[in-house]
């Protein structure tokens, strides 16, 4: 007597060090469903979180910590060395300065910080959109990309939101 659609399960996965990802296909064996019902389930992709916006590794994504470090890194030389993390790193950070620098560079090199998908990573485009996203509902919808998205962007607003959600998800 529950309204449909109905969540039937929540899955938690544990993997070993060799896990790289898989696809799950959810099906119901013949004859196991009540008459008149069917199971519809799209394949579920399960993979490792490769990179996140949790720059300092404290377990949270914050505009006034991770966002500031992203912007500083993208602006470059004025924020070299200790200036990158000064007054922005969380007291519970698990990454050192060099690890933060390496994490940010990976975000650039692997394209995670190319928020709009235009092939480049810029403070005044990708950085702004990432920080806006971290502020939540204040920059919902079109406000997220307003005056920041590249004219050469390959991602739409919904694709940008999906990308930002994926790299904000902490596991």
Describe the protein in words.
This protein has 171 residues and is mainly α. It contains four helices and two strands. The protein has a two-stranded antiparallel ribbon. The radius of gyration is 20 Å and the shape is elongated.
Give a summary of the structure in a few sentences.
Helix content is 29%, strand content 4%. The protein is mostly helical and 171 residues long. Helix 1 runs antiparallel to helix 3 (123-134).
Features:
about 170 residues; mainly alpha; two-stranded antiparallel ribbon; elongated
Instruction: Give the ordered list of helices and strands.
Output: EEHHHH
Radius of gyration using CA atoms only: 20 Å
Total E-strand runs: 2
Approximate helicity band: 25-40%
Low-confidence stretches: none
**Oligomeric description of these chains:** single chain
Mean pLDDT over the residues = 91
Question: Which helices and strands appear, and what pairs or packs with what?
Answer:
Blueprint: E1 22-24, E2 44-46, H1 63-75, H2 97-109, H3 123-134, H4 157-168
Antiparallel strand pairs: 1-2
Helix pairs in contact: 1-3
